[in-house]
Amino acid sequence: TFTTVSNLSNLLNVRYEKLTERLSEMGFEELSYNFILDQETAGLIADEYGFEVNFGEENEGFDLKPNDNIPEKLLKPRPPIVTIMGHVDHGKTTILDYLRKSSIVAGEHGGITQHIGAFSVKTPLSKKLITFLDTPGHAAFLKMRERGAVMTDIVVLVVAADDSVMPQTKEAIKHIKKSGVSLIIAVNKCDKENSDPEKVIADLAANGIDVEDYGGETQTVRVSGLTGLNMDKLEESIITLSEILDLKASSDKKTAVEGWIIESQFKKGMGPLATVLIRQGSLRNGDIIVSGKTYAKVRSMKDEAGKVVKVATPATPIEVWGWKDLPEAGDVVLQAKDEKQAKETIETRTLREERKNQSKDIEIMNKLRLDEKKETEKRAKIEELKKYGLAKDDVTTDESTEAEATGPIIVNYIVKSDVSGSSEAIVESIEGLGNDEVKLNILYDGVGSPTDTDLERAEISGATILCFNMKIPKDIDNKAYKKNVKIKTHNVIYHLIEDVTEELSSKLTPTI
Ligand code: GDP
User: Residue ranges of the Tr-type G domain (predicted)?
Assistant: First the structure.
């Protein structure tokens, strides 16, 4: 499905120079005989020269899409979906635990809540529902944000009154502003003697939050997750805000189900399970839902108390049985008419991904080829100079000229990290490493644990896969070992930089 420039020039019977001229016009740089073109570009050029291009099956195929035009009259108020964010140790878990427990005490469930990634509570005063997400690290939340969609309506930003605004608080503020979700501040640990809520408020204002205390719109509640102080007030503030936001969804039978995967896991004896948070429609047993490249014929549904649910409505989190494969947290869920439609959708998505991978591979191969070409040219030049006695004969005794003679050693890396934010940070911090003798080259960076494709690319390019903040799946680890591909994992950026620096210096020829 791809071809080189020289190949295309032969095929079309067009002179190489003419072809590269046209390609340059199209924005391609550093062209060479073996520069690889993807199907689309090759097709476009062939077409210009009057050739009919036949790529075989080219149509995109069927794919499910969310419905943006749900009739107004079907839309009814729905519970808000809330995420708790904040600096480590400021009390996120404590607050979530308090909320979860209080809902059991209220006699709503009468069961022991299980961790399914989200839970609903009924507020003590207004008796309204709120859905809280409690995914560890809020991976799903961040993944959604990355894709430009937001599954959360409201973020409760927890700031400890004895510690005030900290780096992760600022990070969260950045995320919140970017995604445009609504915000409520919970000043936590107000039971503590050394607490200073006023300082927290002032610090937040200094960080661009328009706190109500200073006449702004952002509600602030002084709470204690430990003693429960003002936790009912926090819940009521969420309800007040959600009413202002006028959150609505359709639970009508005619509305196709839409939602998100909050969490997924493989349970022994039960197969793949996933927590689905419904956005539109109501989900029932027997319904077919697609997520990513897998689907489920819903076998049964349970809420966080382990109670069987017959119909799941908007903003309700439920654990769903019946998946063919494990869906991914953060992925969108869409209802299909039948299994045939679900399979068609998955086929289309698989094909699209393969195509995307192919163009990525082409990019990498061109980059590697170019590096090789430059190195060969450099070497040839030096040889030529030597022949004419223009390069010193004693080059090998001089370190600096030796490096020049062979060109810098290129060390290739592929960066994979938990969220795109950290990916950017890593690339930025290691990009400049190296010197004239050894250079670092980042082939690409991406989000999520290493895949088979990453391994293949690392194998062709001899790259090391640098992973940040993630566990490497066992099978990938085994395959990497067999392919002799190095995978390195770190949780601290500083350590990662140190490690890369060490590897780069180890490539230098020792100067004794
Ligand atoms: P997280 O990292 O944000 O989830 O923070 P945790 O909920 O794990 O809380 C960190 C520590 O602060 C724990 O030892 C909690 O017991 C304590 N803590 C949390 N909330 C409060 C509070 O309101 N008052 C007091 N005194 N301690 C709290």
Answer: 77-246
Q: How deeply is 62 buried, as exposed, middle or buried, from its count of CB atoms within 10 A (0-12, 13-18, 19+)?
A: middle
Query: Got the DSSP string for 439-456?
Result: EEEEEEEEESS--HHHHH
CA distances from 370 to 80, 147, 376, 400 (A): 53, 32, 10, 24
**pLDDT per position as a tens digit, 470-499:** 889 999 999 999 999 999 999 887 788 889
Q: For residues 20 and 6, give the distance between their C-alpha atoms in angstroms, rounded to a whole number.
A: 10
Return the closest-CA partner of residue 504 out of 419, 441, 424: 441
Q: Token pair 């934010």 is at which residue?
A: 421
Return the percentage of the chain with pLDDT > 70, whole number: 88
Q: Say if residue 505's pLDDT is above 60.
A: yes
What spacing in Å lies between the alpha carbon of 158 and ligand 1's midpoint?
10
Residue nearest to atom 7 of ligand 1 (CA): 91
Tell me how far apart the alpha carbons of residues 262 and 277 are, in angstroms, rounded to a whole number. 7
Q: In sequence order, which ranges of 148-270 are alpha helices (DSSP H)?
A: 167-179, 197-206, 231-245
> Residues lining ligand 1, judged by CB closer than 6 Å?
86, 88-94, 188-189, 191-192, 224-226
The number of the ligand 1 atom at minimal distance from the alpha carbon of 96 is 7
Q: How far is the CA of 71 from the centre of ligand 1 (A)?
A: 45
What is the Å distance from ligand 1's center to 89 Cα?
Answer: 6
Residue type, 32: S
Instruction: For residue 403, report the distance from its CA to the centre of ligand 1, in Å.
Output: 56
Residue with the nearest Cα to atom 18 of ligand 1? 91
ipTM above 0.90, yes or no: yes
